[in-house]
Amino acid sequence: MKVLQNRLYRSKWKFVLCIITILLVPGQIATASNLSEDNNTNVNTKWTNNPVVEEFYVAIKEMPASVDVLNFNLTSTKCPDLLFYDPTTDSRLESLNFSINNECQIPASSFEYTTSMYIGNDNISRISWLGQPYCVVDNNKENMHIARLLIDEDMDSYYLIFDGRILTLPEGFAITPYNFFENDDCQVDFLLTQNGKEKDRRTIKEDELYKYNLDINSSNQIKNYMLRFYLEAIFSGGMCTNPVKINSTRMISSNVQVINNNESFSFILDGSKISLFGQPYYVIDHDSTGLTAVRLLIDDGINHYHKFKKGDTLFLPDGFAITILETHPYITLCKSTNKKFNYGNFSFLLTQYGNEIDSRTINGSECYEYELDLNGNGKNDNWVLKFNVGDIISGDSHPDDYIEINSLKLISTNVLHIENVTEMNIVQQGYKTSIENDGMTLTVVRDNITKNIHFSGDGTISFMDNWLTVRVNSASDAVAVSSAVIVSDTYELVGAVEYLKSGYADVNLTSKDNPAILYYDLENAQGHETLNLSIDNNYYSPYKNVPYRISPYSFVYTTRIYPTRDHNDIKIAWLGEPYMVIEHDSSTVVINKFLIDERSDDCYQLSMDDPLNLPYGFNLIASINDSDIAWFSVIKDGLEVYNDTAGEGDIFQYKEDLNSNGINDNLVLSFNVKSLNKSKGSVMINSLGMISPESLMINDGDVSMLSTYTINIKDAGSTIEVRLKEDYIHSDVILKKNKLTGILNNTFFIRVNGAVEVVKLLNTTDTQQYEHELIKRRVNSIKTKMPDIMKNDTNRTDKTTPDVTPDVPVPDFGLFMCIMILLIVRKKIRKK
């Protein structure tokens, strides 16, 4: 099971006096500044937006006793978040096939990954590679040159970029419009930079297509452009600064991957983000001697901005902090740029635990990197902290100069080195490529078809750049193919795809066929959720751009209870999540959500000084007495609620009264006592399980729990069915084209975008999380902490500085006047 990490939440009262001016522009708008409140982290506070790993199943197979071989045939429509599909062209040319025999091995001869080229709507050659879209730069019978497609937007997706402002793009690129021609409003200059270095300056006319050709395969062909966009409109006058509107932005990576025919192929994890022990890691080095990785602490994207003014400090994990010293903006609000336009700069101080480790002056659009030697090669060539610089602005309409940074990334300096990579069971080597069909089709197979692939001790094996994992449950009667993503903000998990035929599509989801959306219990080989609905455009719509609907009679969601394998508990899946059934009958079902459900190889070391922090304010403390017996104390919100003793091999259980029968007979927390270390006073536990202490009561005929839906309990309380309300039955669920429409209280989403997509949104704040060092016994690893550069600093303060909540901001004079005016008005009203 995946392991969740703790996030410390801090809050402070905010008193805000707002004067809001709204500028309405038709359509979907993404401004280059992206300075919404949600996109900014408050300065002078601790960092909380840590990335987390979300692992999800993409395919399930159950092993009948009569079958000797279990075949997996994965396609883009069956596994849309593992294999790439293009809904605009109905291209489903990526597939993965393999088998599992009755000896729980994957025959090497059964493994085959295939992908083929296709032509997009823009007449550009494309291909999918490991579930990601690529452009084919060049191809023939002997090799294929591909580059990652980074941005692929149509004319409905556009940006407003203001005069002199920066639109940040991937790989350090940025574009800025400037020098709006006073005598000709139909053209403007554009500056293109990469890592702050100028790449292109060009004058673009309205209704003109901009293309930047990097000639990434040295072919001198203009079709290999790296960046292009369409200048739709130029606005001038009536606004503080002039904006331009661009759309149809497309960008491909400048890094070209060459795949040769009939070549032994290996995957290298250097510079990639992977999941280790259920946590996000960044790989420093990976070779035959081992793997060196560090925890990924911050992983912001290009659309996540942080705004500062002079004197602001942003506190980051591992004691890092960025303080703005000086700002020297070039851009002045409400004044136009000119031909001599260039970016301003600012100075900042980087500290760790209060000690200066770097200071720098950096220009707008540049990229900053702080580097150390993390791989022991004697060179400071491994980035630890990096970010891109956005706008640096001042002006009469803004009280302070301010600067923006984006794409902030931070890794830990505590290095994890795994010497025996084979113990991780990530199959990175032993592949062979072939290019067929006149250079159109790429196939990857095993180079030695006589050597079968064995599963690790915990029943898992990962393939091809840690792209996917195959997992067999402990009973060997069910197999799951899973994938993992590192989530830093919001991730759209597409769990089902159905292509429209004559404007109509039936969408029928089950736990077994669509485990990314609906819950499948792999350990118990059970999955009983279904979601059925129909989509059509055969009706009159009074709204613009809403040609599709969900027929209300077609919508039905069902789930039913099932026993665990040992028949000790009853479980149910509810809206894609696992729950424990506390009690059920024909009128009511009471359920509690599973928060933690781990295996025996997930271990924790506990002591009096090192408690385990759990969700809902729980803590677990352990110690050892003279009789070699462990004593455990369960703490809730600072108060002990239960304690008991247990020895090696015992099972610890904490129960509460969740069904109000006056007896503490409902299991809330349990684990196995694996081992005791009396000399260190520590206890090793595993198989940790916990359910929420808060119960969810589902009543027959309920119409308020899920808005616009009615809940029905059937089969003596064993089945729950959800349909649209009867008084809502004549109101179709309207679907806007290319937009997410929520169903079941926004638990899932539907989008029609050439195909029908069923989407689940993953977010770092969605899950209760906890923090402790997870010890995976199957991996023989060595943790090496880099030398402390402040070890001998007698002025170091981090050892004595307590963890405090930031002070509440003091209201300023403007707020004081606002309060006074309100009091005067209130006094006058009372007199009347």
Tally the beta strands. 64
> Strand share of the residues?
over 45%
Number of alpha- plus pi-helical segments: 1
Radius of gyration: 29 Å
CA-to-CA gap between the ends?
Answer: 67 Å
* Low-confidence parts: 1-42, 776-832
Helix content: under 10%
Specify the structural class: mainly beta
Could you give a short account of the major beta sheet?
Answer: 10 strands, antiparallel
Mean pLDDT: 81
Q: Care to give the gist of this entry?
A:
This protein is mainly β and 832 residues long. The longest helix has 19 residues, at 813-831. The N and C termini lie far apart (67 Å).
Write up what this structure looks like.
With 832 residues, the protein is an all-beta fold. 2% of the residues lie in helices and 50% in strands. It has 1 helix and 64 strands. The strands form 11 sheets. Strands 44, 45, 46, 47, 48, 53, 54, 55, 56 and 63 form a 10-stranded antiparallel sheet that branches. Strands 1, 7, 8, 9, 10, 11, 16, 17 and 18 form a 9-stranded mixed sheet that branches. It is globular, with a radius of gyration of 29 Å. The termini are far apart.
